[in-house]
Amino acid sequence: xxxxxxxxxxxxxxxxxxxxxxxxxxxxxxxxxxxxxxxxxxxxxxxxxxxxxxxxxxxxxxxxxxxxxxxxxxxxxxxxxxxxxxxxxxxxxxxxxxxxxxxxxxxxxxxxxxxxxxxxxxxxxxxxxxxxxxxxxxxxxxxxxxxxxxxxxxxxxxxxxxxxxxxx
Length: 168
Description:
Layout: E1 9-17, E2 20-29, H1 33-45, E3 51-52, H2 54-57, E4 64-66, H3 70-74, H4 76-96, E5 98-102, H5 108-123, E6 150-152, E7 165-167
Antiparallel strand pairs: 1-2, 1-5, 3-4, 6-7
């Protein structure tokens, strides 16, 4: 197993699926991805993030074990009561993630535009590609005042629903 790169950029959290990978989320960081994932791990363990059933996700089915975000704040007691089940599901989800990283520098607008384009593209795909990602992420797509840029993926793995060329 390879470690998470110690570089900034855009990353994809994916699950193995039918000879390739289904994307759960795109994310960005101007710090190292490995540092960012330490933050992610803490937030997953604290119930701040959605937790999926890894076995279902690998079959292309979105089945939540825990609905994080605002729900956690309103239902802290439920989280505490179910914590052992949720934390075990978190461990399985984190172990099941396959992470892809693109070193595209640290310019905030490029990072934001790539993240937004990836997620919006996934939302428009047929099932199960559109079913797995979280909805409601804060995304900052290209502004009308910005020229379009086309980015090309050099990934040799099959990333279901993600084209080789993407306009950001």
